[in-house]
Amino acid sequence: MIPYRDTVPLRHPPWATWGLIVANVLVFLYSQWLPPGSRYAFNLLHGLVPARYTHPEWAVAAGFPSGDYSPLVTTMFLHGSWLHLVMNMWMLWIFGDNIEDRMGVLGYLAFYLLCGLVADGLHIYANPESTVPTIGASGALAGVLGAYFFLFPYARIVIWVLFLPLFVQVPAIAFLGLWVIIQLYQATSGLPSADSYANVAWWGHLGGFIAGMFTHRWFLWRTSATPPAQS
Question: What residue stretch is flagged as signal peptide (predicted)?
Answer without folding.
Answer: none
